[in-house]
Amino acid sequence: MSSSDTAITYASAGVDVEAGDKAVELMKAAVKATHNSSVLGGVGGFAGLYDVSRLLTYKKPLLATSTDGVGTKVAIAQAMDIHDTIGFDLVGMVVDDIVVVGAEPLFMTDYIACGKVVPERIADIVRGIAAACEVAGTALVGGETAEHPGLLGEHEYDVAGAATGVVEAANLLGPERVRDGDVVIGMASSGLHSNGYSLVRSVINRAGWQLERQVSEFGRTLGEELLEPTRVYAADCLDLARLETAGVHGFSHVTGGGLAANLARVLPKGLEATVDRSTWELPPIFKLVGELGNVPQSDLERTLNLGVGMVAIVDAAGADAALARLAERGVPAWVMGTVGAAGPAQAGPDYVQGAKGVDGGAVRLVGNYAG
């Protein structure tokens, strides 16, 4: 056993505590902007505190929780050195899973692991998370930044988050409410959102395309298109669910697995949704990925959202009211299909029955995409 005259400190091992403290100071204002009267204490405590006294007014409050990350989209943010938008991707992936059951996302926490704490970069990430939380109406009550030298490169990081929401049991949305004759409404995505980037990055790498490449179909660079923030639907969905004339029975958040698989998760056995592809046109980014990588349509459909980020299932009589309310809120939406009695199962990519461990209803894709 040998020793050295040079002392080993935490800083020499690669962890800069002072940089972490500076990052907290830079992000404090953005985090505080998400706080409401229910948030107790400030930034920097061991635990975030949230006053849930309002739940005393509920007859049977149900807590909903979700956790997620952003996936390999962070590689695009790192390559472009733009870090203030990835927070929208994180928040969207988490709170929009909660709102599917009709729950209001109350508060969220985040976790950032990095190879080296660069205060300005960490603050940019958290500012993006905070800005998205404001859009969702969710308080950002805490978080953690961990420096992992030797495990992550100096410019590498990953992000994750978790949120908790609440819904009155009588207002819980899900398969039990969906009925024969319901209408399926699609809400436009802002782009790729945060799923399928392993496929997308493989396609552009094999094609030799650079992130700085100007793409006429996008009207901007490839990198800017790939970094387009996820649309956060939580506040829009909650507003729609509270609109009695809309008759909302359920939502489906279109993430990993694509439209059909995620829609099938919120349908009861014995019913199927028929979704007509001709009711919308594929946005340019999805066309590009398919053509550039010679990716089969079936693979695109089970990997990417293809222009649909959230789906609402509503009573047929409420479809017009639902579309009008979404238009008022600036969310492009359209009727994309209907729910009916399940027909005969079919083999092939156009038919999905049950998904992600849920033995539920089925989705049948018909027609060809417009344009």
TrEMBL record:
Q: Keywords for this entry?
A: ATP-binding, Cytoplasm, Ligase, Nucleotide-binding, Purine biosynthesis
The answer to whether the entry has keyword Ligase is yes
Any single GO molecular-function term of the entry would be: phosphoribosylformylglycinamidine cyclo-ligase activity
Tell me its EC number(s), please: 6.3.3.1
Task: List, for all copies, the residue spans of the domain called PurM-like C-terminal.
Answer: 179-342
Xref: Gene3D superfamilies = PurM-like C-terminal domain, PurM-like, N-terminal domain
The record's listing under NCBIfam families reads:
purM
Q: Which family does it belong to?
A: Belongs to the AIR synthase family.
Ranges of residues in domain PurM-like N-terminal: 62-167
Which Pfam families does the protein's record reference? Answer: AIRS, AIRS_C
Protein name in UniProt: Phosphoribosylformylglycinamidine cyclo-ligase
Q: Enumerate the catalysed reactions.
A: 2-formamido-N(1)-(5-O-phospho-beta-D-ribosyl)acetamidine + ATP = 5-amino-1-(5-phospho-beta-D-ribosyl)imidazole + ADP + phosphate + H(+)
Q: Where in the cell is it found?
A: Cytoplasm
**Pathway involvement of the protein, from the record:** Purine metabolism; IMP biosynthesis via de novo pathway; 5-amino-1-(5-phospho-D-ribosyl)imidazole from N(2)-formyl-N(1)-(5-phospho-D-ribosyl)glycinamide: step 2/2
Q: Which GO terms describe its biological process?
A: 'de novo' IMP biosynthetic process; adenine biosynthetic process
Q: What is its main location?
A: cytoplasm
Q: Which PANTHER family match?
A: TRIFUNCTIONAL PURINE BIOSYNTHETIC PROTEIN ADENOSINE-3, TRIFUNCTIONAL PURINE BIOSYNTHETIC PROTEIN ADENOSINE-3-RELATED
Q: What is one term from the GO cellular component aspect held by the record?
A: cytosol
Q: Which residues span the membrane?
A: none
Q: Which HAMAP family match?
A: AIRS
